[in-house]
Amino acid sequence: QVQLVDSGGGSVQAGGTLTLSCTASGYTVSTGCMAWFRQAPGKEREAVARINSYGTTRYADSVKGRFTISKDNAKNTLYLQMIDLSPEDTAMYYCAASSWVRCDFNPVVYNYWGQGTQVTVSS
């Protein structure tokens, strides 16, 4: 049984830094496609970043240069380092994992989801 546990969210001021973690069990992060999504109140869930089995990354334009997605294979954990946060980054953040070859920003690709961790950025 696959389980993804998100953590690391919190409340910070604009310009602050947070690092989110997603620890997987029953799923090998080194060989899979994984991503971070976020959903703000009243908005649709959107992809933030994804990393494939080769380590190739892709970012949403809104977070390029500020967010970094990475994996620690030894810890079987996915990370999202976020710097220079703004109030527009306030959302519930979810990690996601796919058991398929396809790896992109479409949420239908991902069949496993974490429970979410809240990020709140104040101005």
What does the model show?
The chain has 123 residues and is mostly beta strands. The protein has no helices and 11 strands. The protein has strands spanning 3-7, 10-13, 18-25, 33-39, 46-51, 57-59, 67-72, 77-82, 91-98, 112-113, 117-122. The strands form 2 sheets. Strands 2, 4, 5, 6, 9, 10 and 11 form a 7-stranded mixed β-sheet that branches. A 4-stranded antiparallel β-sheet has the order 1-3-8-7, with no helix packed on it. Strand 5 (46-51) and strand 6 (57-59) form a beta hairpin. The chain is globular, with a radius of gyration of 13 Å.
What's a quick, concise take on this entry?
The chain has 123 residues and is mainly β.
Task: Please outline the helices and strands.
Blueprint: E1 3-7, E2 10-13, E3 18-25, E4 33-39, E5 46-51, E6 57-59, E7 67-72, E8 77-82, E9 91-98, E10 112-113, E11 117-122
Parallel strand pairs: 2-11
Antiparallel strand pairs: 1-3, 3-8, 4-5, 4-9, 5-6, 7-8, 9-10, 9-11
Keywords:
123 residues; mainly beta; 7-stranded mixed beta sheet; 4-stranded antiparallel beta sheet; 0% helix
